[in-house]
Design brief:
alpha+beta; 6-stranded mixed sheet; 7 helices; globular
Amino acid sequence: MSGRLIEIFEDEKLVNRIKTRLPYLFQLAELESSRAGTIGMEVGSLRERIIVALLIYKFGEANVETEIPITEPEVDVRLFGKPVSIKTITSRGFGGVKLIWTVDTQKAREFRENYYPHCDILLIQINWGGTGGFYYLPLESQKRLFDRIGKEGYIKLPKPGTNPRGVEITKEALSSLAEDDMSEVIEIFWQKTEVDYNPYKRWVDYWREDEDEG
């Protein structure tokens, strides 16, 4: 599997395109999911679509499966039949990355008891005004680290009485994965650009389509 995703990092033109285009596209995603200056939760889905579109652009639509059953909560896409998880964080560090979204304490505990890494991860670390990265964290590295530090060191459960909406991979585990010899990274400077963006324009344009025929 590593032979396919790693092709992204070996494609010099694509690497440069990711460095220049990804901040702009993620900025558009934030604008599209903002209301009165506050970014909504749907931004995560938009960012995920942008990365899936990148995979389709690189590997072709026939090799990227996007219709993933809800019974596979960690899998966002299949590339050449192999599962891939896409995770994004807005942070200088590696805290707060969810393995699963749930508010149920019992489900969170069951998840930790039964968890074992089972898919490659593409992690995008957003750091507006600074440096972040586009990371590939291979399944092999995840398994090796999990076997070494165990589920207690790898998984962070929500604190009782709080509502953090999910089970996280620990900051220490994610940092270790990012620095692993098998992992890959494209460093990105997250600079915002002036964007003349109207969230309603394309929908208005759809309403206008074929109006002369009506």
